[in-house]
Amino acid sequence: MPEVAQQQAFFFMQDISGFIKFITETEIKHNTQLIKQLLGIIVDANNLNLELQKIDGDAVFFFG
């Protein structure tokens, strides 16, 4: 069997706590803008310079 090269990887997923409750209890015109701002703050706080893979709902997936 051929030897397989191994690499270390780091996967980080951040989501917004209480997202579903927030979405259901606030007006859509307000919650859409606030969620965009919160996700932007999470992305901008990427001090490890991880690669942004995907934003899905309230979750931000980073890979490094």
Instruction: Give a quick account of the main beta sheet: strands, pairing sense, barrel closure.
Output: 3 strands, antiparallel
Q: How are the strands of the biggest sheet laid out side by side?
A: 1-3-2
The amount of helix comes to 25-40%
**Low-confidence region ranges:** none
Which overall shape is indicated by the principal axes computed on the Cα atoms?
elongated
Structural class: alpha+beta
Average pLDDT, all residues: 87
Our Rg estimate from Cα atoms comes to: 16 Å
Number of helices: 2
The topology string of helices and strands comes to EHHEE
Tally of DSSP β-strands = 3
The fraction of residues assigned to DSSP E strands is 25-35%
Q: Ends: how far apart?
A: 28 Å
How are the SSEs ordered, and which strands pair?
Elements: E1 11-15, H1 19-25, H2 28-44, E2 51-56, E3 59-63
Antiparallel strand pairs: 1-3, 2-3
Key descriptive features of the protein:
64 residues, alpha+beta, three-stranded antiparallel β-sheet, 2 helices, 38% helix, elongated
Quick rundown:
Helix content is 38%, strand content 25%. It has 64 residues and is α+β, with helices and mostly antiparallel strands.
Description:
This protein is α+β, with helices and mostly antiparallel strands. The chain is built from 2 helices and 3 strands; from the N terminus they run E-H-H-E-E. It has a 3-stranded antiparallel β-sheet, covered by helices on one side. It is elongated. The relative contact order is 0.27.
